[in-house]
Design a protein that fits this description.
single chain; alpha/beta; Spore Coat Polysaccharide Biosynthesis Protein SpsA, Chain A; globular
Length: about 290
Amino acid sequence: MAGVPKDQLPRVSVLTTAFNAEPFIVAAVRSVLDQRGVEVEHVVVDDGSEDRTVEVARGLDDPRVRVVEAGRVGRGRALNIALAEASHDFVAILDADDVAHPDRLAIEVRALAARPDLAAVGSGQLLLVGDAEPVFDPVTEAPESRDVGGELLYYNPLSHSSVLFRRTAVERVGGYDERRHALYDWDLYFRLVSVGYQLAKLRSPLVGKRTHVRQYFEGRRMVRYALECLRLQWAAVGRLRRTRLNAPLLFVLFLYRLMPRFFRLGVRGVVGGRARRRSHGPDPRRS
């Protein structure tokens, strides 16, 4: 926001939880500190790292960065600790191995501030392999967005690392569920939509999402993960007041999660298109 006095810029708290993120944490933090058009603080909660993550993060020596050593408390608890440490009403997530477009937060703040019904806005993402650096396109105007609450039952349409939340909305539904072992973000989205909020996704990629062998996503046990997804979706049928006739599709999606990654990506495009058509129909909370 050129010409806006620094003390009048929107203020955003960026939350990062880290576990053995030494190779990537510097790039993640620097991408936050380099954000344009906003004032940021970066809360990094270390979840019991066994490498030099804490030392490296503190070595950046910037007053906008706060490193909290939580011990090995688990992702859900670490996220809630970060949320409690945050000072501002706009709260963004950035995973410790990802990086943000320099205009990400300014763009997302404008999108969220323009619509009081939104609890959160996320964006598209660039997939990065290993230590590859992102090449973001400049964003010269507000990116096109779509509401994605109607898609939630079928798949998770928002990359957690791209999301900017309205803090009051997250606190209203009790923050992250610390009892979970996975799918913290998807569960939170379900709870936000179930109390009347909407979620939106900007089409432009504003985050570089890194994939590597250290991640839970890449190393997970597929059957266990697919079952966890099915349980969460089944519970959401009632939470979102959907008919149980959705059940057969949920079992189809369970089977697809057991397929190789290249196959899943192709099917996801088909299911996503169907869900987007549904999202323009009646409010799913009333159907």
